[in-house]
Amino acid sequence: MTPLEIVLVAGARPNFMKIAPIYWALREHAADHVRVTIVHTGQHYDAKMSDDFFRDLELPKPDVNLEVGSASHAAQTARVMTGFERVLDERRPDVVVVVGDVNSTAACALVTTKMDYEPRRGGRSGGRRRPILAHVEAGLRSRDRAMPEEINRLVTDAISDLLLTTCRDADANLIAEGIAEDKIRFVGNPMIDSLRRSLAAAASSDVLARVGVTAGAYGLCTLHRPSNVDDPRTLVEILAALGEIAATTPILLPLHPRTRARLEAFGLATAAGIVVREPLSYVEMLRVTRDAAFVLTDSGGVQEETTALGVACVTLRENTERPVTISEGSNVLAGVSRHGIVAGLAAARSKVASGTRVPELWDGHAGERIAAVLLAAGEGA
Predict the structure, then answer these.
(1) Taking Cα atoms as reference points, which of 250, 231, 340 lies closest to residue 293?
(2) Sheet of strand 274-277, all strands in order from the earlier edge strand to the far edge
(3) Which residues are tagged catalytic?
(4) Which of 11, 135, 194, 206 is such that its CA lies 20 to 30 A from the CA of 282?
(5) Could you tell me the CA-to-CA distances from 92 to 18, 112, 219 in Å, in that order?
(6) How many Cα neighbours within 13 Å face the side chain of 321?
(7) What are the strands, taking DSSP E only, across 149-208?
(8) How far apart are CA 276 and CA 346, in angstroms?
(9) Residue 2's pLDDT is what?
(10) Which tens digits make up the pLDDT trace of 5-63?
């Protein structure tokens, strides 16, 4: 029997945490009749995307790396599209899976929907002329079209054949936008699969001693979003809030390369009590997140991870595409003013003390559900 050909696309480090559970499930339950190709577009290069990173996630090195690198949104998207078109021409998969909301997600989705060939299975069962396109993490909305990620989400969802959602509000968003309900599958959050599978390794890490903090007695900050670090006024306000908080509780700040460059360009320094370190690996980040007294972040994925771990989270943004982390989890939306961030921390810590919960289907089995959907769609094409 001709194996089902599935391509898993990742463009940035968080994408690998989302495709890993799908890869595990396909390997464990369908290895004899599915061939999986992992494509890394190379949109984000990270020195930590190394042998250790793939070992942490039990992933093989990508089969294809397009190495598109950094560029403007338009140039980067174009490079991904031309490179991915060659991949599809050569491999002719039956199913393409894109995840998240980076430029690579939208670029590969556009290429997939415009391909014209008979996939290996489609040619035997009705002559389908292109791969099935599945979007994992569909339906998330910030309502802020100034965010490049929001445009990528809207475009990808509008053209996908299968929309695989992490939360019920994402389903509602898609239906409100006119997406047919039979395309939508509520499968849960694969990021939490990766988290749960890696917690034991994180628990044995010695990273706390290496970075110089004590479990439960520090805060963690991740800061990288262009809207926060590229504007010196906003960055100064955030740093002032961090300094005020760090006066009583030290804050570990693994410094993103973009943030480091902006601090140097603007001539800014961090306050006493802020423990600046190099970026950490995935397992190391899990450990420092799990053991933090609180987390301050502008990352989407960290909002989900802190909710799963029950750690107080303050989101340094004016909006979030993950409202379930607020309505059910440990997250508080604080904005980017000094006063708002300090007040948000008090609110988040109070919220956790009162009790929060892990959202529905954030149970460590999302990858299995996604794999089942992909297999059913591919076999039936």
Answers:
(1) 250
(2) 274-277, 251-254, 219-222, 294-297, 313-315, 331-333
(3) 224
(4) 135
(5) 23, 10, 48
(6) 29
(7) 162-165, 184-186
(8) 23
(9) 85
(10) 999 999 988 999 999 999 999 999 998 999 999 999 987 766 555 667 788 899 999 99
What is the per-residue pLDDT across 185-216, written as a single tens digit (0 to 9) for each? 999 999 999 999 999 999 999 999 999 999 99
Residue 277 burial (CB count, 10 A)? 16
Q: Are 363 and 192 in contact (CB under 8 A)?
A: yes
Q: CA angle 360-159-40, nearest 5°?
A: 75
Q: Quote the tokens at residue 253.
A: 């700040």
Please tell me the distance from the alpha carbon of residue 22 to that of residue 378, in angstroms, as a whole number. Answer: 15
Length of the chain (residues): 381
Q: Is the pLDDT of residue 166 over 60?
A: yes
Q: Residue 318 contacts by C-beta under 8 Å, 6 or more apart in sequence?
A: 144, 333, 335, 336
**Residue indicated by tokens 């007695």:** 217
Name, in order, each residue with C-beta under 8 angstroms of 80's C-beta and a sequence gap of 6 or more: 11, 41, 43, 66, 68, 103, 104, 107, 108
Cα separation values, 375 from 31, 48, 186, 289, 350, Å: 11, 32, 16, 34, 44
231-267 pLDDT tens trace = 999 999 999 999 999 999 999 999 999 999 999 999 9
Q: For residues 29 and 36, what is the distance between their CA atoms, to the nearest angstrom? A: 13
Say whether pLDDT at 93 is over 90. Answer: yes
Backbone angles phi, psi at 188, to 5 degrees: 95, -170
The alpha carbon dihedral of 17, 20, 25, 26 has a sign of positive
Single-letter amino acid, residue 193: D
Phi, psi for residue 10 in degrees, rounded to 5: -135, 140
